TrEMBL record:
TM helices/strands, residue ranges: 7-24, 30-60, 81-98, 118-136, 148-168, 224-241, 304-322, 328-350, 362-383, 395-415, 427-450
InterPro entries with a match to the protein in the record: Ac/AlaTfrase_AlgI/DltB, AlgI, MB_O-acyltransferase, MBOAT_fam
Protein name: MBOAT family protein
Chief location of this protein within or outside the cell: membrane
Keyword Flavoprotein: no
Localization in the cell: Cell membrane
Source species, domain of life: Bacteria
Annotated keywords: Acyltransferase, Cell membrane, Membrane, Transferase, Transmembrane, Transmembrane helix
Taxonomic lineage: Bacteria, Bacillati, Bacillota, Clostridia, Lachnospirales
Classification via PANTHER family: ACYLTRANSFERASE, PROTEIN-CYSTEINE N-PALMITOYLTRANSFERASE RASP
Keyword Metal-binding part of the UniProt annotation: no
Family, as annotated: Belongs to the membrane-bound acyltransferase family.
């Protein structure tokens, strides 16, 4: 089930809100947990067993770590942590990366490894990282272990951010899992955020996705350099509005239910550098890798060579986290190399020519998205005697120029002050505009057949 489906918008979520708000304070976690498990099992009920097993193992491990630390049995606590890490990493490796291993090994040595034809459990990368951060933080004594099984199960399985983030650390929501306040202000702001996210997804991401797929489907006789760049721009807009729209919806739903999730995007296409881009894009993932991998490996504290090693490890694993395919590995290493160059080669150039480097940053990001999409890069640079532009290019320029301009404008924070002003001075107008957006989204969903979430299976 996805947020931009009729089953969610007109059945599942309204029922959640009715029962959640009608229930007593001490029943709200139970209600939310039940609906979160239903939400997860909607598409693949068999994998609910895997999630419940993961919840139980990490719950027990957290209690054991806390008990051993309290008894000053640090070796036992460390053993508990290692066992939990092995389980979590094994689960994600087996279901997400074993098919990739099989395809590569059996390509060299036919039928050496059995192929179980496994489908990827939805959201396993997100809830596994949440579980890992919890047991690590309990071991570091940054948070106490959660003794209530229902509360812990809710933390892992909470449906707003279950299948596509943001990755929420236990410390960020522990207080609100135990006791949260529901207010009209939060419900209103959450509703607004949800509608904005739904609009990003339905009105923008889906439209750009169709343009990109059509351009990718062109045969070589219709390809041209400018056409390929229109496709690259379209994909860059699609993945941003798709993923940030989902994060907006998750944050909005959370707020309607009394939770305040962290922000996951901060206008990433305004980035001044690749480093700045990754401080703005998928913030919860970047901070997770920094906190739980880069810093423990030594970060930048042990000299340049160790720092370079750490960056390459983190970014290769970041690529693998996004998907079990070579293009994701290359995509991760591409960013790792760019970050190394920024730190050790381009630093003075960035300071002297910040505007030029900002343009270069956008160029490098566009190329990265073609790696991510596993698209053919040759047309972008005119390899293979491809024309600079042709009749097909003019067609896409004429038909896409308006939506591309809207997409570029929507990536910028220009509308924020006006939105705040309208909400303050003319709240009725603000409600009318949001209602209009919601209705437009519903009409679009009725007429659209293209409605994927790019991050749905990460």
């Amino acid at each position: 089930m996805v947020f931009s489906s009729f089953s969610f918008l007109f059945f599942f979520f309204p029922l959640v809100l009715i029962l959640y708000y009608a229930g007593f304070r001490y029943t709200k976690n139970v209600i939310l947990l039940i609906f979160s498990l239903i939400f997860y099992a909607w598409g693949e009920p068999v994998y609910i067993i895997l999630m419940l097993l993961s919840i139980t193992i990490n719950y027990i491990t957290g209690l054991l770590i806390e008990r051993n630390i309290a008894s000053n049995r640090m070796l036992s606590a460390r053993s508990n942590l290692i066992l939990a890490a092995v389980w979590n990493l094994f689960a994600i490796a087996f279901f997400k990366y074993y098919p990739f291993l099989v395809s590569n090994v059996n390509g060299i040595f036919p039928d050496l490894l059995p192929d179980y034809n496994l489908s990827l459990p939805i959201g396993i990368s997100f809830y596994t990282f949440q579980a890992l951060s919890y047991v690590i933080d309990v071991y570091r004594q940054k948070v106490p272990a959660q003794h209530n099984y229902i509360s812990f199960a809710l933390y892992i399985s909470m449906f707003p951010q279950l299948i596509a983030g943001p990755i929420v650390r236990y410390s960020d929501v522990a207080r609100e899992i135990k006791n949260r306040t529901l207010s009209l202000h939060d419900f209103a702001s959450g509703s607004e955020r949800f509608i904005i996210g739904l609009s990003k997804k339905v009105l923008l991401a889906n439209t750009f996705g169709i343009i990109f797929e059509n351009i990718q489907g062109l045969d070589s006789s219709h390809q041209a350099i400018i056409t390929a760049w229109i496709g690259a721009l379209s994909y860059a807009f699609q993945i941003y509005f798709d993923f940030s729209g989902y994060s907006d919806m998750a944050i909005g739903i959370g707020r309607m239910l009394g939770f305040h999730f962290i922000e996951n995007f901060n206008y990433p296409y305004l980035a001044k550098s690749i480093t700045d881009f990754w401080q703005r894009w998928h913030i919860s993932l970047s901070s997770w890798f920094k906190e739980y991998l880069y810093i423990p490996l030594g970060g930048n504290r042990k000299g340049a060579l160790i720092q370079i090693r750490n960056i390459l490890i983190v970014w290769m694993l970041t690529g693998l986290w996004h998907g079990a395919n070579w293009n994701f590995i290359f995509w991760g290493l591409y960013y790792g190399i760019l970050l190394i160059l920024e730190k050790f080669v381009f630093a003075s150039f960035i300071k002297r020519f910040p505007k030029i480097y900002r343009i270069l940053t956008l160029f490098l990001i566009l190329i990265s998205w073609m790696l991510f999409a596993n698209a053919d890069l040759s047309a972008l640079f005119g390899f293979g005697k491809i024309a600079f532009l042709n009749q097909t290019t003019w067609y896409y320029l004429k038909s896409s120029i308006l939506i591309l301009a809207i997409g570029a404008f929507a990536c910028l924070p220009f509308l924020n002050p006006y939105g705040k002003h309208i909400k303050k001075k003319a709240p009725f107008l603000a409600v009318t505009l949001l209602t209009g957006l919601l209705l437009l989204c519903i009409v679009s969903l009725i007429s659209q057949s293209y409605n994927p979430f790019l991050y749905f299976r990460f």
